[in-house]
């Protein structure tokens, strides 16, 4: 038997102001995207903004459905949109923000497992990390250097 050990770390910033101007701008795009969420069932809005290598920003928000599983998270909406709009363009950074109608969220809201799996596909495809910044409505912001830091021991095309 050989143990496999995974280590990953996040950086947590007290506020958005601690981050660089370009990350602040990207997060502001995520806030705007969040306002486009269609979330009448959960009343939980999420916005994602992806910075591409050409400087363009592609956004997404969660889109819910009366048939609950037919809805989609903000991150996958944004990544699939970016993949469809610029199939060969590298994705550099993604900013994500979540807001609840029930309470003020001031701690980072991490992407769900299904979104991590969907996002890591693009990281593998482009063979370069995608930096993630995620937060609630206000307050602390977490940074991961890559999607794989949030999803070690991935299932990808090399497993097939
Ligand atoms: N949601 C996202 O958009 N991203 C996540 O990573 C977690 C959850 C959405 C899905 C659903 O519309 C609502 O938040 C509540 O789960």
From TrEMBL:
The lineage of its organism: Bacteria, Pseudomonadati, Bacteroidota, Flavobacteriia, Flavobacteriales. InterPro entries: CMP_dCMP_dom, Cyt/Deoxycyt_deaminase, Cytidine_deaminase-like. This is Cytidine deaminase. Coiled coil: none annotated. The keyword Disulfide bond does not apply. The keyword Nucleotidyltransferase does not apply. Gene3D superfamilies: Cytidine Deaminase, domain 2. PANTHER family: CYTIDINE DEAMINASE. It comes from the Bacteria. SUPFAM superfamilies: Cytidine deaminase-like (SSF53927). Belongs to the cytidine and deoxycytidylate deaminase family. One of its GO terms (molecular function) is cytidine deaminase activity. Keywords: Hydrolase. Residues 21-158 form the CMP/dCMP-type deaminase domain. Its EC number is 3.5.4.5. It comes from Autumnicola musiva.
């Amino acid at each position: 038997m050989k143990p496999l050990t995974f280590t990953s770390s996040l950086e947590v910033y007290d506020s958005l102001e601690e981050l660089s101007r370009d990350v602040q701008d990207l997060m502001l795009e995520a806030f705007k995207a969040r306002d486009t969420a269609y979330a009448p069932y959960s009343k939980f809005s999420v916005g994602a903004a992806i910075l591409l290598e050409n400087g363009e920003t592609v956004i997404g928000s969660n889109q819910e459905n009366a048939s609950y599983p037919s809805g989609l998270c903000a991150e996958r909406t944004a990544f699939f949109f970016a993949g469809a709009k610029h199939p060969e363009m590298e994705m550099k950074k993604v900013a994500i923000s979540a807001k609840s109608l029930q309470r003020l969220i001031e701690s980072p809201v991490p992407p769900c497992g299904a979104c991590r799996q969907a996002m890591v596909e693009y990281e593998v495809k482009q063979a370069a990390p995608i930096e993630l910044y995620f937060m609630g409505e206000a307050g602390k912001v977490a940074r991961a250097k890559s999607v794989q830091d949030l999803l070690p021991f991935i299932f990808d095309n090399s497993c097939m």
